[in-house]
Amino acid sequence: MNDKSSRIVNYISSLSPDRKPVVVDLDELLRECGDVRSEDIKELALNGYLKLLYSEGGTFCLQVTDKKLPDPVRESAVPPVAPKKFKKGSFGMGFLGGIVGGGLVLALACAVYFILELF
Predict the structure, then answer these.
(1) What is the rounded distance in angstroms from the CA atom of residue 32 to the CA atom of residue 8?
(2) How far apart (Å, rounded) are the C-alpha atoms in residues 38 and 28?
(3) Which residues have CB under 8 Å from 29's CB, separation 6+?
(4) Selection from 64, 53, 46 nearest residue 9 by Cα
(5) Which secondary-structure segment (H or E) carries 24?
(6) What is the DSSP letter of 74?
(7) Above 90 in pLDDT, residue 77?
């Protein structure tokens, strides 16, 4: 959730400290909370932060629930870990392993073919 969501929930809570339903108009929310759309209110209701009792045009009957908004995500103090350097021979060993593995698969396929041809 973002800052806009917390402003909406805090404003609704300030209108009814005892958590009773409150009827608010979208214009009132625009004045008090900034750029608010009806989708923001419905999203808060779907996520369980507000209880939407009814909605009629730009008028909403809302009730604040006990669910708390998550804290804003902060950047961690730990710097990102740089990828480790590969050893010099790791590419060659991987390439050699691919060739050996491919040769084994080819030998197995040939063996199966000749066994099926003989029987």
Answers:
(1) 9
(2) 12
(3) 8, 11, 36, 41
(4) 64
(5) strand 22-25
(6) -
(7) no
Residue 105's pLDDT is 96
State yes or no: pLDDT of 9 exceeds 90: no
Distance in angstroms (rounded) separating the CA atoms of residues 106 and 99: 10
* Beta carbons of 44 and 9 less than 8 angstroms apart: yes
- Confidence at residue 86, expressed as pLDDT on a 0 to 100 scale: 66
Integer Cα distance of 50 and 8 in angstroms: 10
Distance CA 46, CA 65 (A): 12
Say whether 62 sits in a helix, a strand or coil: strand
Q: Where residue 76 falls among pLDDT bands split at 50, 70, 90? A: low
Task: Identify the three-state secondary structure at position 1.
Answer: coil
Structure tokens at 111: 């063996």
Q: Of how many residues is the chain composed? A: 119
Measured at the CA of 7, the angle between CA 15 and CA 43, to 5 degrees, comes to 100
